[in-house]
Design a protein that fits this description.
Radius of gyration: 31 Å
Number of domains: 2
Distance between the termini: 88 Å
Low-confidence stretches: 1-7
């Protein structure tokens, strides 16, 4: 681990896990088990259970969640969404971004420390394997600096083999979210040559996950993830973050004339991104994982001092004891978010189980039957069944018109399928006002209906 000089602020010039020359310093975070670590562990196990379990659950023969981008099929909590619902997806994304902004203003990167998949996988799965095989941070550092011998090869080989297997399991789980459990079972049970693309996808996902959690690690949070960059824009002195109480802790050291911080460096030792939280809460590398809180509380208990030298608090809370303050930014974000969520909820509740596209066939003029004195127009209809069940439909026009189907009429449509057909609208000459649009009503057996007004041309 790098050595930190706490008497200067050169930490502002480069990442904690890099030298000034840009060379990476490998981080060996110490293991600490405290109150927050236990809570994070229980919460992460709940999230992991949901992550690995949800792809196996089905509702009406379909997955609970599906994000099939290539085939443009999406299911969220059992409700299917299609490209025609893009406006709902866009509004949902706007609401999500506003929620993230509001949440960040209030609580900083608490998401990163408690619920982010990168942190959950790294700290609760891969890191535990590393501790189990190689030992704590001191043992890991000693092993890394030792020459290649039998012990090192066995430990490293075992660790990376388990890393690959775990990455393989994660890759298969994510693939199930993309293609569904049924398609995934076909992929793993049928001959490999029948699913070459799927197998290549699994191998690529496995390689990516292995690289991220075996090598890249904290660099994802410090360099790639855009969420950390939002801190510099969204955080203020009222945001609840992992804070070091400098008023109580300074000056550091041991002795009656010193503050509560004994300068033991335990907070630095256990940090998964290698930062020193005492340099301030505005460090973008901090993911709010609470490891430093647990470590500091342990030291405070051993030195018979009150805990909370490092705690969840705002900068104003540390400086003046001020509690969370309702600001105009919080009010603005909350108001806009509430309006968007209300609008999105209304659109979801009133969303019909089908969607219709009705167009008069382009390039076709009207047809006149001299014998029956009828004029007709040809129409193309596309009907998307957006429900999870087979649906029955009926198409009706005003009483003056007759509907004559060309080919198979749209009476039944399978769940999630798009059906196309054509029909003529026929009316006696003079029975319909020239230039007036014709209302065509499509009714679903369950009660939903949609009326589309379409043009109808005829002789003057």
């Amino acid at each position: 681990m790098s050595q930190f000089n706490l008497d200067n602020d050169d930490y502002r010039d480069h990442l904690y896990n890099q030298t000034k020359d840009g060379k990476r310093l490998w981080i060996f975070p110490g293991r600490i088990i405290g109150q927050f670590y236990r809570l994070r562990t229980y919460f992460s196990y709940l999230l992991l259970t949901l992550l690995f379990g949800l792809p196996w659950l089905e509702y009406k023969g379909n997955p609970i969640f599906l994000f099939n981008v290539l085939e443009r099929k999406f299911i969220f909590w059992g409700v299917p969404f299609f490209p025609q619902d893009f406006h709902l997806v866009a509004l949902g994304l706007v609401a999500f971004l506003l929620f993230v902004s509001l949440f960040t203003v209030l609580f900083g990167r608490i998401w990163c420390g408690w619920a982010c998949p990168q942190t959950i996988f790294m700290e609760m799965l891969f890191r535990k394997i590393e501790y189990w095989i190689e030992g704590d941070d001191k043992a890991q550092r000693k092993l890394a600096e030792s020459p290649w011998n039998t012990e090192k090869m066995v430990k490293r080989g075992t660790k990376h083999s388990l890393f690959v297997l775990l990455s393989f399991a994660i890759a298969n789980t994510f693939l199930m979210y993309l293609i569904s459990k049924k398609e995934w079972l076909k992929l793993v049970t049928e001959p490999p040559l029948d699913h070459v693309v799927g197998l290549i996808a699994i191998l690529i996902f496995t390689a990516v996950f292995y690289f991220v959690f075996a090598r890249f690690r904290e660099m994802v949070c410090m360099v790639i993830c855009p969420y950390g960059r939002l801190q510099g824009v969204l955080l203020d002195n009222n945001s609840i973050l992992v804070q070091y109480d400098h008023k109580r802790g300074e000056p550091r050291g041991k002795g009656e004339d010193k503050g509560a911080c004994i300068d033991c460096h335990w907070c630095v030792r256990v940090c998964p991104t290698g930062i020193d939280i005492r340099n301030g809460s505005n460090q973008l590398e901090c993911i709010g994982c609470t490891a430093c809180i647990d470590a500091c509380d342990m030291v405070m208990e051993k030195t018979h001092q009150p805990t909370g030298l490092i705690r969840y608090d705002s900068l104003n809370g540390v400086n003046s004891g001020q509690k969370l303050k309702f600001t105009w930014r919080i009010g603005a974000y909350s108001t806009v978010l509430a309006l968007i969520v209300a609008g999105l909820t209304y659109m979801l509740v009133t969303r019909t189980h089908f969607e219709t596209t009705l167009l008069r066939t382009p390039g076709m003029i009207f047809q006149v039957d001299e014998k029956t004195q009828e004029v007709s127009n040809l129409y193309q209809i596309k009907l998307l069944n957006k429900s999870m069940d087979k649906q029955e439909f009926s198409v009706k026009a005003p009483d003056a018109f007759n509907i004559v189907w060309v080919g198979k009429p749209l009476l039944q449509i399978e769940a999630g399928k798009l059906a196309k057909s054509e029909f003529f609208l026929r009316v006696k000459i003079g029975k319909w006002k020239s230039g007036e649009k014709v209302p065509v009503t499509i009714t679903e057996k369950g009660g939903d209906e949609e009326t589309i007004k379409t043009s109808f041309i005829q002789p003057e």
